[in-house]
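Usage

Read records sequentially. Each one opens with the input sequence:
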Amino acid sequence: MKNTRTSRFRAGLLAAAVTGALAISATPASAKVSDGYVSGAYKFQDDFGDEGTLSTSSYAHSNATALWQWILWAEGAKKSNGDAFRYADIDCRFGSDTKSATVSLQRTLKLDDIDGIVGNETFGAVDGNIEYVSTDYDSSTYRTKLRYAGDANAFFLYRSSSGVYQLHIPNAARKPASYTTASC
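and closes with the structure output:
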């Protein structure tokens, strides 16, 4: 009887461990800086609101900053001299032009914090502009092609099956929107 009770106890522990492992593996990708990438899960229109902060002192030279610069270009955000943020301004660097264009966009969006810092409120305010285009299957993986439609321009970006966003980096092809890597 003792062996039966011990066997049932072990079987119960094993079942609980397997169930826990399956639950963890089924959890969607979370958008955390610690993951290293701008990422999302489920609906793409709410992927950016929980991303890391971008600023002149936070991930200032990264592909994640390039993604934000694409958004500034698409929205027609203005730099401090009054000129629109241009495609040529996409350089993976969160400098003074990116900061002033961010302030301009924050004003246009009527956000609470107009500080030139891309935090949850700022990043989250624009992810509703993402539109589904198509899903491409490549053997067992897939990627979703998306379109960001701003007030002035539009651009394509991709979300991999693991949720990582990829975008075209000028002079470097398509790259993941990494917080720690800069391709330009």
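Summary fields computed downstream for this record:
- The CA atoms of residues 91 and 184 lie 6 Å apart.
- The chain has two domains: 1-28, 33-176.
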